[in-house]
Design a protein that fits this description.
Blueprint lengths: L1 H15 L18 E6 L20 E6 L5 E5 L14 E6 L5 E3 L4 E2 L6 H16 L5 H35 L2 E5 L3 H4 L14 H13 L2 H11 L4 E4 L16 H4 L7 E3 L3 E3 H11 L4 E3 L5 E3 L12
Parallel strand pairs: 4-7, 7-8
Antiparallel strand pairs: 1-2, 2-3, 4-5, 5-6, 9-10, 11-12
Helix pairs in contact: 2-3, 3-6
Length: 308
């Protein structure tokens, strides 16, 4: 294990000094975070563990890690086979949101299982207790471990949800279309600098937590793994303001006085489902003018009935 750690460090250092494709600088390991080791070769080792699945054939290395909740895991380096396309020619659009984690163009509204009121209150109590505990004390260690177990349970629920939904979509549809969102930039802090402090920092922090709790990145990443070549990213411009039936683009259609969840044109429809249908269509909703500026393209609204 020690020899393999030295080999990994040597490989990371060589990648950092690579002129053509440099990697990040190897960082110091923090105690209690990503504890574990990697072993190449599996012959002669006996394991007394609970296997969650069969070990794929041809595995040559594995890594044993302990997460922040004190749980040990064994991960094998293997790439699973992608799921077979159903061959029905169907296309689905997926609109990711906060209130509704994923809205499909078929009308389905999918939500990540969030913690209940009791669990949320318990997390707040543990966070206050952790802030009052003395650093390095046994009490602080116990509270931190209990809080980490609750957080790990919530992360496991999000991961399980993303695995099930991505598998279901890869088996039901030949082509999956999602918005091309930069989740990392969208969840960036708005704190700013002491010279130029940010605005609405607390509101932006709450929005960032909601986006991360919705599992946007994990869902799309698993769809790419299970359906390679069958996932397309669509430009998100005006997908929430365009009518999926008549094509009329207007911000007032989404900004309804009654609720933001409704899209009102010549009819009313769930706003997330309407955006998902625009994503499933996959065509741009913009047109370039003579001055090279991209503007929304409006068409005369038509009296059409909503799709059944």
């Amino acid at each position: 294990m020690q020899q393999q750690a030295l080999r990994d460090f040597s490989q990371a250092t060589a990648a950092f000094f690579d002129r053509h494709n440099p990697a990040d600088r190897p960082s110091w390991r923090k105690a209690g975070r990503n504890e574990g080791f990697r072993i190449v070769g599996r012959r002669g080792h006996k394991w007394d563990v609970r296997w969650s699945r069969l070990v794929p054939p041809g595995v040559k290395s594995y890594r044993v890690t302990m997460d922040r909740a004190g749980r040990w895991h064994v991960a094998f380096a293997a790439i699973p086979k992608p799921l077979t396309a159903p061959g029905n020619g169907q296309i689905v659009g997926v609109d990711r949101g906060v209130a509704v984690s994923a809205a499909l163009s078929t009308g389905e509204l999918l939500r990540v299982p969030h913690p209940g009121t009791h669990e949320h209150k318990r997390v707040l109590r543990l966070q206050r207790r952790l802030a009052r505990a003395k650093r390095g004390s046994n009490r602080r260690r116990r509270v931190r471990l209990t809080l980490a177990r609750l957080k790990a349970r919530q992360a496991d629920r999000r991961k399980d949800w993303a695995e099930k939904i991505s598998t279901d979509l890869a088996r039901r549809f030949d082509l999956i279309r999602v918005e091309d969102l930069d989740v990392k930039s969208m969840t960036r802090s708005a704190r700013g600098t002491p010279q130029e402090p940010g605005r609405n920092v607390r509101q932006k922090a709450g929005l960032n937590r909601s986006i991360r709790a919705s599992g946007w990145g994990g869902l799309v990443r698993r769809m790419y793994d299970k359906a390679p070549g069958r996932v397309e990213k669509i430009r998100p411009a005006f997908t929430s303001q365009r009518c999926s039936v008549c094509g009329h683009v207007a911000a007032e259609s989404r900004e309804s006085r009654k609720s933001q969840a409704l899209f009102a044109c010549n009819f009313t429809l769930n706003a997330d489902v309407n955006a998902a249908r625009n994503i499933a269509a996959g065509h741009a909703v913009t047109a370039r003018g003579g001055d090279g500026v991209t503007r929304p393209r409006n068409r005369e609204p038509q009296l059409l009935l909503p799709p059944v």
